[in-house]
Amino acid sequence: MSGSDAAAQLVPPKTTAPPPDTGQDAAYARGGLTLLMACGATFVAFLDVSVTYVAFPSLHKSFPDASLSALSWVVSSYTVVFAAVLAPAGRLADVMGRRALFLWSVAGFTLASGLCAIAPTVEFLVGMRVLQGISAAGMIPSALSLVLSSRPPEHRSSAIGLWGASSSAAAAVGPPLGGLLVDSFGWPSVFLINVPLGVMLVVASYRILPPRTGPAGRMPDLIGTLAVALGVGGVVAALTEGSSWGWTSPAFLGALLGGAVLLALALLRSRRHPAPAVEISLWRSRKFRVANIAFVLFGGSMYCWLLAAPLFATEIWGYSEVQAGLALAPGAVMSVIASVLAGRYARAHQRVAVVVGGILFAVQCGIWMIGLESKPDFLVIWLPATLIGGVGIGAVMTGLSSASATALPPRLFAAGAGLATTARQVGAALGTAAFAALMAVLGGESGKTLDGFRQVFVMCTVLAALAAVAALWLTDPKREAEH
Questions:
Q1: In terms of Cα–Cα distance, which of 84, 78, 76 is closest to 422?
Q2: How distant is the alpha carbon of residue 140 from its chain centre?
Q3: Cα–Cα distance measured from residue 138 to residue 146, given in angstroms and rounded to the nearest whole number
Q4: In angstroms, what CA-CA distances link 230 with 3, 57, 107, 138, 373?
Q5: Which tens digit of pLDDT belongs to each residue from 181-201?
Q6: Boundaries of each Major facilitator superfamily (MFS) profile domain copy (predicted)?
């Protein structure tokens, strides 16, 4: 060995300087707490939907002079505005910062909830429900994007499973909790319960969430953003209210066609604008595109079933609203469990989770279609089928959320989450419209017979099966890695 070689061995090797701190490590360190905040906001947003349905009869007693069509907007205004603002809100979160939009949205939701509880008129209540819907639309994509940005890629699917379980938990808790609150304290209590939860979320999130978790950028196109919101809102409003407006009425046709035209113009404008209202480039990913299609199909099946199931229990079996909610609770609990388990394994098996889940939910609807009779048969038919369907819902929703999320670049986490959730809500509107149309075709109130509900369950079965078929085109994660 030469002297120069010996000297070289005594010189310590050069080390590469660590990369500059971008704040990502800090975000990862707070991943568990960030997930907790996101799950809390998602739980509150979806809880508000289910408990309001239960409060509807009590609202009618408090506002006897209000028409049923006006009162229906207490429920519909939230869902319509929620769907309309999701995509623009997700785009905005990626620009102004996910933490900032999350905090403002939770604060707005909390304030609107308190004002709903003291509403002196139906018109004021509907206005505050609109504010709730806008705020909820900001909460959901910013919450999911915070979850995604606070976890390394290999842990995102399990986090999505837990995040998705929070909405399933809201579905499980909502009906019995809403019935208990309304029976004990009246309808204002279903809104007041959001206030302490919201205040705790705002305070905790302000202290826990990293100061900046989203990249800065240009504000999205204002004209395109308004066109998207009004377009989606028009389509969803037409589908949701078509049965009460009339399927050939000027209101229905105007809202549907006007919304479709505005959406088309917004998408055309987004193709050329440097800061588009809709990131249509995301749809170039086959995985994201297929996940959105499956969301629409399965959303239609699931929400149509969610409308039909409690109504079947009350109209055919004579259950009370609280009993109907409790009858659905086991399936919702199973959905929570399935969401968590699917989140652990869906990263490498997204397609399997959605296909199998869609088939399981179709099996449940098929069993109900064939097996349910006028005489209550909870233990033999209802309960086993509901448990199967709960597994299916948890697997599908987690699998699709995971598939769409893993197709997104980090800078567009919130925009993609907004688009995916919009697809789900459009499916919900389609399911609502299909249920109302089928009831009308079968004879309005007289359609609420055993045969009428069986026709509804046929449609739910077909849509769930189509969602499973569409999911066959989801890109396999292993193939993505190879390419």
A1: 84
A2: 8
A3: 12
A4: 79, 30, 24, 16, 43
A5: 877 888 898 899 899 999 999
A6: 34-479
CA dist list (Å): 219 to 13, 275, 389: 47, 7, 42
- pTM (two decimals): 0.80
Name which of 4, 43, 272 is nearest 171 in CA terms: 43
Q: How confident is the model at residue 217 (pLDDT cuts 50, 70, 90)?
A: low
Q: What is the DSSP track for 167-181? A: HHHHHHHHHHHHHHH
- Provide DSSP, 328-390: HHHHHHHHHHHHHHHHHHTTT-HHHHHHHHHHHHHHHHHHHHHH--SS--IIIIIHHHHHHHH
Q: CA distances (Å), 244 to each of 72, 237, 253, 311, 339, in order? A: 10, 11, 13, 18, 35
Determine how many CB atoms are found less than 10 A away from the CB of residue 406.
Answer: 22
d(CA 205, CA 345): 29
pLDDT exceeds 70 at position 90: yes
Residues 6 or more apart whose CB falls under 8 angstroms from that of 68 comprise 60
Tokens read off for 12:
């310590």
